[in-house]
């Protein structure tokens, strides 16, 4: 008697891999759609779509680890999605908004940013942290691509906000884009907060803070993005000193352990 075989898209043991990959693919769709909206001149929606792509990028890896659905396929898919959503889409939005006015120079800046982003992602995939240097997991080398994708849009976000500051941020767009591109491929340490431990006593306050952030994004989207973008830029030199201090501390502890072994 023949066995009753049912068609399955994936085996039951691998269905948990679908959810994080679906989130990743949704992110790339948002990134590509933002380019379309920028071509139509709807820059507000273009920025919002890239913001949603960044949120999904922050969630897919955590969801994969939570449900034990990590895979090499998902890792490669995530990198490709990051390049499209944060290496191409944001700078194209910026190009259609302002960089196009600079002619060949504007297009060159667009290419420079995209190349720096893909180099940053390739280096990230090859980076391995030794077990003895596990503390380095709390730091990125250079700014991550989602942060870079949001940061280069800050001149546009400023124009879209209701802030009435007498300052022409728009004319600094080419220089600001190049600076962010350099930070992407630099080895400047920036905080990742991946391995940060959270006390159970502070969970309620953290959830409250997250709720307030989403409420502010809902009612004051561009002003909130400007605020957190500025905070992130300020945190870069702070993270540099934190990295240096931690590195010095670890080196001292290592030298002391080696000295004790000799004795």
Query: What is the radius of gyration computed over CA atoms, rounded to a whole number of angstroms?
Result: 21 Å
- Trace the largest sheet across and list its strands: 1-2
Q: What is the H/E string?
A: HHHHEHHHEHH
Provide mean pLDDT, rounded. 83
Strand content: under 5%
What is the CA–CA distance across the termini? Answer: 75 Å
Low-confidence stretches: none
Number of helices: 9
Shape: globular
Helix coverage percent: 55-70%
How many β-strands, per DSSP? Answer: 2
Would you tell me the structural class of the helices and strands? mainly alpha
Could you describe the largest sheet, including whether it forms a barrel?
2 strands, antiparallel
Task: List the keywords.
globular; single chain; 263 residues; mainly alpha; two-stranded antiparallel ribbon; 9 helices
Description of the molecule:
With 263 residues, this protein is mainly α. The protein has a domain at 87-256. It is built from nine helices and two strands, in the order H-H-H-H-E-H-H-H-E-H-H. The protein has a two-stranded antiparallel sheet. It starts with 17 loop residues before the first helix and ends with a helix. 29% of the residues are buried.
